[in-house]
């Protein structure tokens, strides 16, 4: 595998001259073309993964630069993203202006759930949110372009039209989480801190898997992009409220079928010192990293199956 | 008469255009239903703690949730109407072609948006409401007259929603990139329509203000007509409130459109 730092450094500058959205695809194509020159030879699986990450980095850097050409537009979208998600929390605050507890949880506890769910989802949305666009690429046939480049398709889709403005959601979730941690006055032991950190990281991985599986699903159900929103946006909304609010069947569903309960519900109940409504054994609260790994493995299989099922348009 | 037929044809083609994507419609119904369930459970918890909050009993609160999901696409409460397409035509200069058609720009888009709303009410409105009614105890009216008044209220709500989105979309004539303006419009409509929380639960003076803004005409008034929070004369004042906002905002749209078309500069000319 050849390296080409000079080539990649010059690329984004040239690309940045075009209008961000309109010429975007053409710019992506050019960057991909150069990547092709870089990836000569037959690398092993490890080198291929590394190459995927690097190619992802080049493409993301290109999109960030092209976004920054329209700095005002970017700032407006960042603020709008921040405010849009903040209004979700305003709705929760309006609820708590009428009641002291919801499903037995006080406002700081709900804010803790809200913050961990939002930050985990925000990270996944920033890094892998572009998998929502696969349906469109399959419909208009531009998926073919990604397949002809010698860069892992997963890396290309993840970096495609990378939207830095999604930092707004992460920032908002982090602020709510910070406020919750300050108001909760928990006894901060090492395991509590580790568990909270792992909620955000493993949660992001689990949500990321939901995005990729959703993307793989779109190879078959091209127009049904919106089904994915039920699991991604619906999932993060669900996890912002305490599990005691919902019916047991729903809680079971997001524990055993789509393992969203491991993002924050189960570990958060342990951090907050609460009972689990399903009465699962205690070690389950610490199982999020294992669940996240398992999700990655299954997602990898689903993604490969989806990619293999792809039939180009026009024939 | 001839013009009337023409606008009707535009509306019909708007209806057909959205009716083409059946799988997408089914996907939308699925997602609306999932969100309906999530919101319904949180509302049950809230009304369990505070029965009669905002003057609703629990059945009425749940009816509000499912009406909201039914009207989400119809009144384009989270965006997704004509505005992105209109913005694109302004940005590329294609709007010049629209302007020399022997038709009114605003009425053209209104007709097309009403066609879209008509399809979304049938295709994406009925199924979530039925799903909600099957699982939860809803406060749906027995009288066909109330349903009829609800439909009138929905129509007025869609017109107000169109008028607001049209105003925001016209900003493209000055900003060229009105992505931010459209996002702002969506943000305001999600919050002030009552999508997240009914407006009669909003506290104090802020709540009173929210209930007089045009976004209240899009979901809060139709929902109140349906679930019986507005009865008799209150229905009339509700419909009057919607009609006033519709006239004022459509008028403002015409004025702004007149100014905008005078300054239109097509690229290269």
TrEMBL record, chain A:
Membrane-spanning segments: 74-99, 111-129, 190-213, 286-307
Chain segments carrying region Disordered: 1-39
Pfam families: ABC2_membrane_6
Keywords recorded for this protein, A-Z: Membrane, Transmembrane, Transmembrane helix
Comp. bias regions, Low complexity: 16-29
UniProt-listed PANTHER family: INTEGRAL MEMBRANE TRANSPORT PROTEIN, SLR0610 PROTEIN-RELATED
Protein name: Transporter
Organism from which the protein derives: Streptomyces cacaoi
Lineage: Bacteria, Bacillati, Actinomycetota, Actinomycetes, Kitasatosporales
TrEMBL record, chain B:
Sequence intervals crossing the membrane: 21-44, 64-82, 121-140, 146-168, 180-199, 235-256
Domain of life: Bacteria
UniProt keyword Transmembrane helix present: yes
UniProt keywords, alphabetically: Membrane, Transmembrane, Transmembrane helix
Annotated protein name in UniProt: ABC transporter permease
Natural source organism: Streptomyces cacaoi
């Amino acid at each position: 595998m050849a390296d080409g730092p000079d080539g990649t450094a010059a690329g984004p500058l040239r690309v940045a001259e075009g209008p961000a959205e309109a010429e975007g695809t053409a710019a992506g194509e050019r960057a991909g073309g150069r990547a092709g020159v870089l990836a000569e030879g037959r690398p092993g699986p490890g080198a291929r993964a590394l190459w995927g990450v690097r190619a992802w980095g080049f493409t993301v850097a290109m999109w960030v630069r092209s976004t920054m050409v329209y700095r005002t537009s970017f700032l407006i979208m960042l603020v709008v993203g921040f405010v849009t998600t903040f209004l979700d929390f305003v709705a929760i605050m309006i609820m708590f202006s009428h009641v002291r507890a919801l499903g037995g949880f006080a406002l700081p506890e709900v804010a803790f759930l809200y913050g961990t769910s939002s930050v985990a989802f925000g990270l996944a949305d920033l890094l892998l949110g572009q998998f929502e666009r696969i349906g469109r690429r399959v419909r208009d046939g531009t998926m073919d372009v990604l397949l002809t480049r010698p860069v892992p398709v997963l890396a290309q889709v993840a970096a495609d039209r990378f939207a830095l403005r999604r930092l707004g959601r992460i920032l908002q979730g982090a602020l709510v989480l910070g406020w919750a941690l300050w108001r909760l006055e928990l006894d901060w032991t090492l395991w509590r801190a580790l568990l909270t950190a792992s909620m955000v990281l493993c949660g992001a991985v689990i949500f990321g898997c939901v995005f990729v599986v959703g993307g793989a699903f779109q190879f078959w159900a091209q127009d049904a992009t919106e089904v994915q929103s039920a699991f991604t946006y619906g999932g993060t909304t669900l996890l912002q409220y305490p599990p005691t609010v919902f019916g047991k069947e729903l809680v079971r569903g997001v524990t055993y079928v789509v393992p969203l309960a491991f993002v924050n519900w189960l570990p958060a109940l342990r951090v907050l010192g609460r009972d689990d409504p399903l009465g699962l054994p205690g070690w389950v609260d610490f199982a999020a990293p294992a669940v996240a790994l398992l999700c990655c493995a299954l997602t990898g299989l689903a993604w490969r199956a989806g990619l293999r099922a792809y039939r180009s348009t026009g024939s | 008469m001839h013009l009337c037929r023409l606008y009707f044809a535009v509306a019909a083609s708007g209806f057909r255009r959205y009716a083409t994507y059946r799988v997408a419609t089914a996907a939308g119904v699925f997602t609306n239903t999932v969100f309906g369930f999530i919101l319904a459970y949180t509302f049950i918890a809230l009304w369990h703690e505070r029965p009669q909050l905002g003057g609703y009993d629990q059945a009425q609160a749940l009816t509000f949730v499912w009406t909201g999901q039914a009207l989400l696409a119809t009144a384009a409460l989270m965006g997704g109407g004509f505005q992105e397409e209109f913005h694109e035509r302004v940005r590329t200069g294609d709007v010049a072609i629209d302007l020399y058609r022997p038709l009114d720009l605003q009425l053209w888009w209104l007709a097309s948006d009403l066609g879209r709303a008509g399809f979304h009410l049938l295709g994406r409105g009925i199924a979530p409401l039925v799903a909600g009614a099957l699982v939860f105890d809803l406060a749906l009216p027995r009288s066909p007259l109330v349903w009829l008044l609800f439909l009138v209220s929905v129509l007025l709500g869609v017109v107000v929603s169109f008028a607001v989105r049209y105003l925001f979309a016209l900003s493209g004539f000055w900003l060229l990139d009105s992505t931010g303006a459209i996002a702002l419009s969506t943000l305001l409509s999600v919050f002030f329509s009552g999508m997240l929380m009914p407006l009669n639960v909003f506290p104090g003076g802020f709540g009173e203000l929210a209930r007089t803004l045009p976004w209240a005409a899009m979901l809060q008034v139709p929902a109140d007509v349906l679930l019986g929070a507005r009865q008799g004369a209150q229905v009339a004042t509700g419909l009057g409130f919607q009609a006033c906002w519709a006239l004022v905002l459509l008028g403002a749209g015409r004025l702004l459109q007149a100014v905008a078309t005078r300054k239109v500069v097509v690229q290269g000319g």
